Amino acid sequence: GVSSGACTSSMLLKDGELYVANVGDCRVVLSRKGVAKALRKDHRLTREDERLRIENTNLILFSLSLFKSKSIEITYNILQGGFVHCQNGIWRAQGLLAVSRAIGDLHLKEWIISELEIKRLRLTSDCQFLIMFSDGLWDKVNDQEAVDVVLREKNLLMSCKKLVDMSSSRGSMDDITVMVIDLLNFVTTMLEVSVGIGSDSEAVLEAEAMDELL
């Protein structure tokens, strides 16, 4: 129905480059030499820029007359846009959603947009794997913990199960979706194709990739 919505993350590997797109608070984390790096910022109302965007959507100025006589008029000006407030430590839009972007939620689409944010970076030899996961995991397990579990478990399927169990044991009541993508085969193929580029050019590519992550 019109009240249903979803968050999503997607990725594309093409010609040695990684593209990551997200709407909402699903997260994509890259392991580079064992260090976790979130590739996109979550679309949550903890982000000041997202709160301001909603509050400024269709901003209207109201003038409320408080007192009026022949010689004096007192008015109170009210600016009203989207409604954002914090309750029990959780920011919500229109008193309902904690995410600021999503697919669906048509009754809130005036404020909860579905516009993607996209990240592009070039794969390098130290890119190990990606973890794609929903907030049911990262609300209880931080990015580096998730990377450490995958590094220890080795088997990708078992590492996913381990992460789900870890989040559940810490009290997660939300849906928990986890996917681990091994990048080593893609990186190896890319480097084999680019053998003729030369070490200087490869160093430039490494530097560009690092700049894109900063």
Automatic annotation (TrEMBL):
Pfam families: PP2C. Signal peptide: none annotated. GO terms for molecular function: protein serine/threonine phosphatase activity. PROSITE patterns: PPM_2. CDD domains: PP2Cc. Residues 1-183 form the PPM-type phosphatase domain. InterPro entries: PP2C, PPM-type-like_dom_sf, PPM-type_phosphatase-like_dom. This is PPM-type phosphatase domain-containing protein. It comes from Quercus suber.
